[in-house]
Amino acid sequence: MIYITRRETFSSAHRLYNPTFSDEENERIYDKCNNPNWHGHNYVLEVTVCGYPDPNTGYLIDLKELKKIIRTHIISKVDHKNLNLDVEFLKGIIPTVENLAVAFWKELEDKFTNCKLYRIKLYETENNVVEYYGEKIDLHKFV
Ligand code: NI
């Protein structure tokens, strides 16, 4: 089995806020990330797919194709956007780095034919990173 990874970057604004919590609870739980006028991150997204190389081409997936899939279904929808307001597939989801990884998986998992989505790795900062391998998680939606 071969694993191949494509790295992409994007910049987005967000606010961590749960509408079912009081203002005080939101402040206590999310602290600076609860800032009503948003804040931003330079995210790094790594998408890993796995499978067996095609014997004729030697490719598991053409990396141009992997890049195109990620850019079409994720980057073009989130880059320079507000993750709370602008992104249809994130509507009603608290845009934590955890929830973003799960939501990105859902957008990408059925887009591959000769290989399988293996991992979403998402850096929110240089020091904070999540990895998601597709175990079933239901994202709670508020709308
Ligand atoms: Ni943040």
Short description:
This protein has 143 residues and is α+β, with helices and mostly antiparallel strands. The protein contains 3 helices and 5 strands.
Describe this structure in words.
It is elongated, with a radius of gyration of 16 Å. The termini are far apart. The chain has helices at residues 23-30, 63-78, 97-108, and strands at residues 2-14, 39-51, 81-82, 116-123, 129-132. The chain has a single domain, classed as Tetrahydropterin Synthase, Chain A, CATH 3.30.479. The protein is an alpha+beta fold and 143 residues long. Helix content is 25%, strand content 28%. It has a 5-stranded mixed beta sheet with strand order 3-1-2-4-5. The structure holds nickel (II) ion (NI). The site of nickel (II) ion has 4 residues, from β2.
Indicate the topology.
Blueprint: E1 2-14, H1 23-30, E2 39-51, H2 63-78, E3 81-82, H3 97-108, E4 116-123, E5 129-132
Parallel strand pairs: 1-3
Antiparallel strand pairs: 1-2, 2-4, 4-5
List the main descriptive attributes of the protein structure presented here:
3 helices; alpha+beta; Tetrahydropterin Synthase, Chain A; elongated; binds nickel (II) ion
Approximately how much helix is present in the residues? 25-40%
Task: Tell me which ligands are bound.
Answer: nickel (II) ion
Structural Rg: 16 Å
- What share of the residues does DSSP label as strand, in percent? 25-35%
Oligomeric state of the chains present here: single chain
CATH topology: Tetrahydropterin Synthase, Chain A
Output the CATH class name: Alpha Beta
SSE string, helices as H and strands as E: EHEHEHEE
